[in-house]
C-alpha cells in the first residue's frame, strides 16, 4: 500500500482493536468498499447504539402500559476510522454515505471513530439527512 492508504489502514486497525478489546464488539471486519479510498470497519456492538426518536416514543409508551422494558437487539454498524488531524468536509461524509450498501431501513448512519495521537478513540453517530430531535 502506498502512503495515504497505509495510513488509513493503520488508523482503521487501531480503531478495530479498540472496538474489540475495549468495547466488546463482535463479528468485526475491515472491508474495502468500492468507491472509497479508505477501509471501513463493520461489526456488531454489544447493545443497540441508536434508537430513532419515533421508536423511543413507542418504546416508552409500551413500557408505561406493560410495565416491562422493551428489548432492542443490536444492529451491525459501519465504522469510519479517522485521525483527529484529518480534515473532513460534508462532501467527504456524503461520499462515504453514498458508497455504503442500503441494508438498513431509514437513514444511513455511520459510527465516526476519531483516533487521537495518544490512541484515545472518541465515537460519534453520524446520520445522513435530517433527524428530528428526541422528545423529552
Task: For this entry, give a set of tags.
24% strand, alpha+beta, Trna Endonuclease, Chain: A, domain 1, single chain, 5 strands, five-stranded mixed sheet, 136 residues, globular, 33% helix, 3 helices
Description of the structure:
There is one protein chain. The protein has a five-stranded mixed β-sheet, covered by helices on one side. The chain has 136 residues and is of the alpha+beta class. A hairpin with a 5-residue loop joins strand 4 (109-115) and strand 5. It has helices at residues 3-23, 53-66, 90-99; strands at 26-31, 40-44, 77-83, 109-115, 121-127. The model has no long low-confidence stretch (mean pLDDT 85). It has one domain: Trna Endonuclease, Chain: A, domain 1 (3-Layer(aba) Sandwich), CATH 3.40.1350. Keywords: tRNA processing.
Brief sketch in words of this structure:
By secondary structure, the chain is an alpha+beta fold.
SSE diagram, text form:
Layout: H1 3-23, E1 26-31, E2 40-44, H2 53-66, E3 77-83, H3 90-99, E4 109-115, E5 121-127
Parallel strand pairs: 3-4
Antiparallel strand pairs: 1-2, 2-3, 4-5
- Domain count: 1
- How many E-type strands? 5
Structural class: alpha+beta
Main sheet characteristics:
5 strands, mixed
Q: What integer value in Å does the Rg equal?
A: 17 Å
Mean pLDDT: 85
Q: Percent range for helical residues?
A: 25-40%
The helix/strand order is HEEHEHEE
Q: Give the spatial strand order of the biggest sheet.
A: 1-2-3-4-5
- Note the overall shape: globular
CATH topology: Trna Endonuclease, Chain: A, domain 1
Identify the CATH architecture. 3-Layer(aba) Sandwich
Assembly status: single chain
Question: How far is it from the N-terminal to the C-terminal residue, by CA?
Answer: 49 Å
Task: Quickly name the level 1 CATH class.
Answer: Alpha Beta
Low-confidence stretches: none
Distinct helical segment count:
3
- Our estimate of the beta-strand percent is 15-25%
